[in-house]
Amino acid sequence: MNSEFQQQQEIRFVTSKDGTRIATATIGRGPIIVRAAHWLTHVSRDPESPIWRHWIAEMSAQNRLVRYDLRGCGLSARDVCDISFEAWLADLEAVTQQINEPFTLIGMSQGAALSIAYALRHPEKVERLILIGGYVQGIRARASEAQHIIEADTLTNLIRLGWGSDLNAFNEVFTNLFIPDGTDEQCAWWQNLERETASPETAALTFEVLQQIDVSDLAPKVNVPTLVLHARNDARVPFEEGQRLAACIPDAQFVPLESANHVLLQDEPAWKTLMASVRAFLPPRLASRPSVGEIALTPAERAVLGMVAKGLGNSDIAANQNKSEKTVRNQVSILFEKFGVHSRAELIVRVLSDP
């Protein structure tokens, strides 16, 4: 499943205004969705991760998904002099420069503020905004008490001391901010990604910049349809900040998510809520597709679909159904066509996430 994803995505590099090389990845076909960069991604590793693969599969099932790594992170240039909000905005401009049709822009976490700034600078490019776990102001920009400053300083120092290391205290604190309900596998992946995606100093500098984000003067000027989603018990960005973000943007829709995770995991009910909300929000040409129960399948196809959804390969399915691998391979290809997907990964997510 993961190798198919890796083969399908196309990784390229673009050059930002200051010469920094930014790694991009595209996957899927159809109207374009661009995901603004945020923390803890690695375009070459994300398709195999238990944190991001369901996001990629679902967002690319009916669309062409474009994502990229932050400067200093992942496959993007690591040795960079300028880590700032303006530099991040210039990187997003470089990534989207060759896109000649309006697209949906998704901003997660600090990517929400970045998406707002981009939408105002390039109104001809952005068709809709989807903002997930975002905020108008970073913790330093909104700090009203000394306690907030202490919290920000503590987290920055923890990053410099424990980023990507085996320090259990750091890993427990930091991981719980993002995926408190994560499994052992998911938490281990998170820790490994820290090592692979950025140095401790780059991570600390990035964290310092996102703490100072302030788009409170820009958000009220947004004039495209906007969907805001936020987990009620998000420890990374308080739920109240999501509510404030939605209140600042004219006519924004707000959807609370019953979760404690800053990054929603595939098996939690909130993931289905998020995807159902996104499908309902997107224009009909992006959102319309039959539910799993509405797709006409033969009994043989339905049996194969059930085993694919359980993660079985063609050889195991063939043995179970007393068929040749060629027959199973053909039936899986028919399922791809009927469900409008391009890989087993997309098919599995399509079946499991159908509301």
Automatic annotation (TrEMBL):
Keyword Transmembrane helix: no
Any GO MF annotation of the entry: DNA binding
A GO biological-process term: regulation of DNA-templated transcription
Gene3D superfamilies referenced in this protein's UniProt entry, alphabetically: alpha/beta hydrolase, Winged helix-like DNA-binding domain superfamily/Winged helix DNA-binding domain
Pfam families (alphabetical): Abhydrolase_1, GerE
Domain HTH luxR-type: 290-355
Keywords: Hydrolase
PROSITE patterns according to UniProt: HTH_LUXR_2 (PS50043)
Superkingdom per UniProt: Bacteria
GO CC, alphabetical: membrane
Protein name: HTH luxR-type domain-containing protein
Organism per entry: Neptunicoccus cionae
Taxon lineage: Bacteria, Pseudomonadati, Pseudomonadota, Alphaproteobacteria, Rhodobacterales
